[in-house]
Design brief:
Blueprint: H1 2-13, H2 17-46, H3 52-58, H4 66-77, H5 82-92, H6 98-116, H7 120-151, H8 158-211, H9 225-254
Helix pairs in contact: 2-7, 2-8, 4-5, 5-6, 5-8, 6-8, 7-8
Membrane topology: Multi-pass membrane protein
Organism: Shewanella vaxholmensis
Protein name: MotA/TolQ/ExbB proton channel family protein
């Protein structure tokens, strides 16, 4: 039965049977592998106990000390999700300057993004090649049809047109069937990978600020201690400028 099915498929697709099957096989394997990674990372990220240290970090109002850094390191070392691995990397470099930790974090995030996007370029290439192979099959089918018409001495019959047109339409449909899921999966997995890295980078930057000595890093209140002094200075300077402007206006009105 499989031999009969493959013979029928080869009859419908012609010489492009193996290239189209190879594209379909590669696209399917990459999609399955990326889907398994997506499910694994998603389950790790939504597991409540896995994210307890993130909630503690967001609600932290005390500066980093050797004791609480050790506790946090023990929590993150036992986990394997993206955020926990990045946090473990930062916590192990707590004695390094903040600038060096930022450089290390940037390099690590770039590597993680490349790992999350592995195979997506191949999916995009398959999505580009498959319709072109289908178009090539269309051209070959039309060439075969016109060759048969050229050899025919009698009137043109539907049977003479069906073989060439069937090959042309079948290869075009097969190319599009492979290309549409491949391009869609490549874009969706790319968006997911970028979102994972952005979220991890945001949390790990907060952790780096906490290690640098900033006490309040709560993202709910949107009040970072690093900018509170700047905000107070800007408010005081703006108040002084307003009072000076009002005094200048009164002097001009009196004169």
């Amino acid at each position: 039965m499989p031999i009969t099915d493959f013979s029928t498929l080869q009859t419908q697709l012609g010489v492009l049977t193996w290239p189209l099957l190879l594209c379909a096989f590669l696209a399917l394997m990459i999609c399955l592998e990326r889907s398994a990674l997506f499910l694994h990372q998603t389950l790790l990220s939504i597991w409540p106990k896995k994210q307890a240290w993130i909630k503690a970090l967001h609600q932290s109002s005390s500066a980093a000390t050797t004791e609480n850094v050790s506790v946090l390191l023990a929590q993150t070392s036992a986990q394997q999700d993206l955020l926990a691995r990045g946090a473990t990397l930062l916590l192990k470099q707590v004695h390094q300057p903040k600038v060096l930790r930022e450089e290390l974090l940037s390099l690590w995030l770039n590597k993680q993004q490349r790992d999350l996007q592995a195979g997506l370029k191949v999916l995009q290439v398959i999505g580009i090649i498959s319709p072109l192979l289908g178009l090539l099959g269309t051209v070959l089918g039309l060439i075969d049809m016109f060759a048969q018409l050229g050899q025919s001495q009698g009137p043109v019959t539907p049977a003479q047109l069906s073989a060439g047109l069937g090959l042309a339409m079948n290869t075009t449909a097969a190319g599009l069937i492979i290309a549409v899921p491949a391009i869609t999966a490549a874009h969706l997995f790319g968006i997911w990978a970028q979102g994972q890295c952005l979220r991890a980078g945001h949390v790990l930057n907060q952790l780096n600020l906490w290690l640098a000595g900033i006490e309040d890093i709560s993202i709910d209140s949107n009040q970072y201690q690093a900018f509170s002094k700047v905000s107070s200075k800007s408010r005081s300077s703006s108040t002084e400028q307003k009072s000076a402007f009002n005094a200048h206006t009164q002097i001009e009105s009196q004169t």
